[in-house]
Structure formats: C-alpha cells, structure tokens
Design goal:
about 140 residues, globular
Length: about 140
C-alpha cells in the first residue's frame, strides 16, 4: 500500500502553497494524498443547520475539486474526505484512519500571537497530532 499524506485544504492562498508542497513530497515518497476539508456544524439554536451544511459542503466540494485536478495533473493519486469536525480534529482523525506519514497544512499569514489567541489549525495540530505536521508558510 502506498504511503499517505493528509492535506488540510480550504482553497485559501496558504492552502494552495501547502498543496504544492504536498505534491512535491508525495512525488518524492511515491505517496498518495488525502485532501481533508474539516468543518464544524454549529449547534442548532432553535434553527436548522441544514442550509449551513449545504453551503459548507458546496464550498468544500469546490475547493476539493480544484485540488484534485491539480494533484491528478501531477500524476499523484488522491482522494477527498469532507469531515464534519473541527479542522484540526478532522485532520488527525483522517491521518489515524489512513495511517498517514504526515499532515501538511498552510498558514493564513497571521501573526503568531494572533494564531495562539485565535487558535490556528497549524498551532492546534502541532499539539494534538500523533504524526509529523508540515506547516507551509503563507506565500509572501
């Protein structure tokens, strides 16, 4: 079975930089990439979450489709997982399920202190992931 790299992907500029790096590493390691889009469903406060789910799923499917096209053009095998969990927890869950050798994520270019206060996905991953995490800097 091929090695697996889990890629956190939301279509942002930072995620696209992570996508490029994940492809580079996958080609070197002859690995496949599992694209993960994690999202949390908010608790329903007297309202429906159905519309929220549809909108988020549409965004996730569009982002993933763009990533799949780019990955397949590079000759790397890939698949997509849309996970209804917080992004960091979703990435770790898929990494554990697939036996991934690493998780690759990008940054959004925020100041490190803002990431600590706001709880950036890369920061959380560095604390909870049982596999190595490659954090690709936001392109300048």
């Amino acid at each position: 079975m091929a090695r697996t790299i889990v890629l956190g992907y939301d279509g942002s500029e930072g995620a696209r930089a992570a996508l490029d790096k994940a492809i580079e590493v996958a080609q070197l390691e002859q690995a496949r990439i599992v694209i993960v889009f994690g999202y949390e469903i908010p608790a329903a406060h007297g309202g429906e979450t159905g519309e929220y789910r549809r909108v988020v799923r549409a965004i996730a499917e569009k982002a993933a489709a763009d990533a799949v096209e780019r990955i397949r053009q590079s000759g790397v095998e890939c698949e997509t997982e849309l996970i209804p969990k917080r992004p960091a927890e979703g990435l770790v869950s898929v990494a554990e399920q697939t036996g991934a050798s690493m998780i690759v994520v990008g940054t959004h270019g925020e100041h490190p202190l803002a990431g600590l206060i706001l709880g950036s996905v890369p920061h959380k991953l560095l604390h909870i992931s049982p596999v190595p995490v490659l954090v690709v800097p936001h392109p300048s």
